[in-house]
Every structure is written in structure tokens, then in C-alpha cells.
Amino acid sequence: MKFRILLYCLLLHLPSFAQSSIDPLLEKLREKMHTIYDTIDRAGAIFAVVLPDGTYGAVPVGYADQEAGIPMTAEHRMLGGSTGKIFVSAVIMQQVEKGVLDLDRPVREYLGHYDWYARVQNADQLTLRNLLRHSSGISRYVFEEQFQKDVLLDADRVWKPAELLAYVLDKDPLFAPGTDFAYSDTNYILAAMVLEEVTGKNMYKLVRKNVLKPFKLKRVSPQVDRKVKGLAVGYSGPDDPFFPGRTVKNGVYQYNLQFEWAGGGFVMNPQDLARAGKLIYEGKVFDPALLEDFFDGVDAKRLGGQWGLGVHITDTPYGKAYGHSGFFPGYITNMQYFPEKGIAIAYQTNTSDAANRALFLAMRDLVKLVMEY
Q: Which residues form the Beta-lactamase-related domain (predicted)?
């Protein structure tokens, strides 16, 4: 009973402008969320929706910390994993709009003066367009066996981008640029290095100044410190290749957070993630004339659909959807914007345990509820 009262109070504290049109929908979502949660152990989740007029709200379920009995609230934050790439691609597109960056200019013209650059896979043929839509042929540093060992040695280590790239230098490329697709965080490490090289500014500061601050996305912040305000405890499975078990102890995340950088690198909440998706995909964050390039995707192979310049494009029963998903030990995230409906949704769970992923997959039922409301 206390948990239901808490949820009700949280709904009352949604932004006042959102009350009239969204409350009935949130109530239906809340009922559906509890039906789903009855079949799940340990996990918690937050589901957020933004309506065509910009009103938004979120419904939480479960626990932010099961051991301590702390319920998940609509304001809890989680690690967004690769979903953070939407902010990196957005600030890069802002620089394309200004003429500071060119999507088709060879990356070697930006970074070729560094000794290590010639050792990058496909170094002479890379463009920003290749990097942003994962058609570069560059492999994933995070799955290199030596990196997975090294990252465990010091959870507080501050990794430099060039140190991350070092794990794939001198390796054979996966394919020639532009001829295939292979999702790789390394692409965004390199793309953000181009961004910082040309602007002379820190990637996180560019995102904060040009995206988070002007659009009041206050629940999103850089993932640089293992002690994160408002972070729900994450639970990963016993066989997790990165960090198994409870990921937060005494308020401190137990795995290195900083290394992800431009490959994800943001702490977030589904409400602001959904708002960000709607803003970006409607052309409010950079010149809408660039959306044609932005949505010009390549076949995403086994991931389905197409991949544009930092956006996964899929066909759904509700029309085309733009979005991104993400994983970080203890958390799974998904965000989608449906242009034919003008609606954005986002949801996060604080478990990446395969045994509890049913909760994440069940969120699809909530999407159906929103679309048919």
C-alpha cells in the first residue's frame, strides 16, 4: 500500500503543464507496469512518454535498491550505455551546420598529424559519415580481451581516448569503409576526437552548453565519477562479462564509468532521454535541413532496420521509428521517436541480468498502449 501511495504522489509532482492531457495515459501505464512487475524479481524500471505537444511524464515500478527497500521513483537515474551517442552525434551535427566539420572530409585531414593515426583501421579512407553510421570497418575495443582485463585494474582510472584506440591499432579492418555495417563504440571515440580537435573544446562541455542546458535536460549528466547523484542500483547477472552482481556499493559504482566517454558516457533519466530524442529527430537541436543526411542510413544487418548518423531507424507497427538503445553493466535503456505520431518514449531498467530481461522486453507492451491510446 505504501508503495502505491508513493507512486501516486510522484505522479502528482509531474510538471504542472503536463497534467491535463497526460494523466489518464500515465494511470493506464501505471496499471500495466504493475501487471508486468508481478512476474519479475528484483528489477525496477521507469517508462517515460512525451506527447506531440511536448507534455511528458513517467511511471516507475519496482526498486532502485532492493536490499535497502528503496522504491524506484520517476526521478531516479541510470547509466544509459550507448544511448548517450545521440548527444555526441547531435553536437557533431551542430558543427557540420556551422561548417566547422564536413561529414565527407577524410578523417586523416583532422587527425593525421598524430603518430598513431596511420595505425587506425582503414585510416586513409575514413570519413565522419563512416564513423557515425558504423560503416567504417573499425572493430570494438571494448570486446578486446586485454582491455577487459585492464579496465578492471583501476576503477578510478581516467582513460584517454588514444589509450582506448590503442587496443585496435594495427588490426586488420573488418571491411572497407562504406561497404558494410558493424556496430562499434570505437567509431564514436574517434569521431569525438575529431570534434575536440577541430573545436578545441571538451566534448562533454559542448554537449552541456549546446544541448543539455538550452533544452533544460537537467536529468542528464556526464558519466565521469563513480559516485552518481540519484543513481538506482544496477543488478547484472552472475555471468556478466564486465561486472557481475550488484554494481553499486555504499553509493559508489564498482566498475569504471569514465572509459565509455563518447561511446555512451552519460547518466540519464527516461524523461529527459525521451525529450532529447523528440527534440533531435524533429530538427530542433541542429538545422533541420541536415535531417536528410542524418536519416540517410545503411543496412544495420542483424540489428535490423538502418543506421543513420547516430540513429537506429526501424519499421514498426506504428510507422517508422528513430531511436537508440544502450547497455552498461546493471542497466538497459531504449528510446524511440515515432514521427507519424509525434510521440517519443524511453524506458530504463536497473537490471541487465538475462534472467530479468523479461521486464525490459515487456516494455514493448507499454509502447503499444501509448500508440493506441
A: 39-356
